[in-house]
Amino acid sequence: MKHIMLSAGAIALLVASTACSKKIAAAPPPPPAPVQTPAAASAPARTTAAKQTPPQQRSAQQAVTPTPRSNTITPQERATLNQLLARMEDALFDYDKSTIRTDAGTALKDDVAVIRGILSNYPSQKLVIEGHADERGSQEYNLALGDRRAHAVEEFLTSMGIPTTQLTLISYGKERPVCTDESEQCWQRNRRAHLTAAP
């Protein structure tokens, strides 16, 4: 009888433990995490990053773009330009004339390469074409004559490919002579067109 009761107790214990283990195993698994596409997965990260970056910092980051080199020349560069221009031969004119002579055309053609180099290196720089006259005649007349001479040189240079936008004109008439002797040789030197760098 004892053996029967022990066997029955063992069976009951075995059944109870099996039932408990089944109850534990039967617990439902946790719900699977929602599946995200690569685009959806990366979207929250971008949103979070944008929220974490203050607007001032974002504008500072956008503002860090390389700026082009300024085309403004320094006083030292201007002095160098004026030295180059001073070495160029002036275009000389006949008495009371503003047409480009053969020798003036040759001098200007020789100067074109230097002028083109200057203007390509400094695209915002302008060159001044100065028109001059000798001392004979009234101030008003010589100012008009100097202006015609400056225009003649401008037309010549633009025909050689120099951009008009980088040329400006001024007439000094007889106010700035390079020679003050009263002789034809001196007067000839004053009847000229001269180039210089605009301020």
- The CATH topology of the domain at 81-197 corresponds to 60s Ribosomal Protein L30, Chain: A
In CATH terms, what is the architecture of the domain at 81-197? 2-Layer Sandwich
> Could you give the order of the helices and strands?
HHHHEHEHEHE
Number of helices: 7
**Which homologous superfamily in CATH is the superfamily of the domain at 81-197?**
OmpA-like domain
Percent range of helical residues:
40-55%
Measure the end-to-end span.
128 Å
Q: Give the mean pLDDT.
A: 77
Secondary-structure content class = alpha+beta
Low-pLDDT stretches are 19-26, 37-51, 55-69
- Say how many strands there are: 4
Biggest sheet, strands in spatial order? 1-4-2-3
- Sheet having the most strands: 4 strands, mixed
Q: Kindly provide the radius of gyration, computed on alpha-carbon positions and rounded to a whole number of angstroms.
A: 46 Å
* CATH class category name of the domain at 81-197: Alpha Beta
Shape: globular
Q: How large is the share of residues in beta strands? A: 5-15%
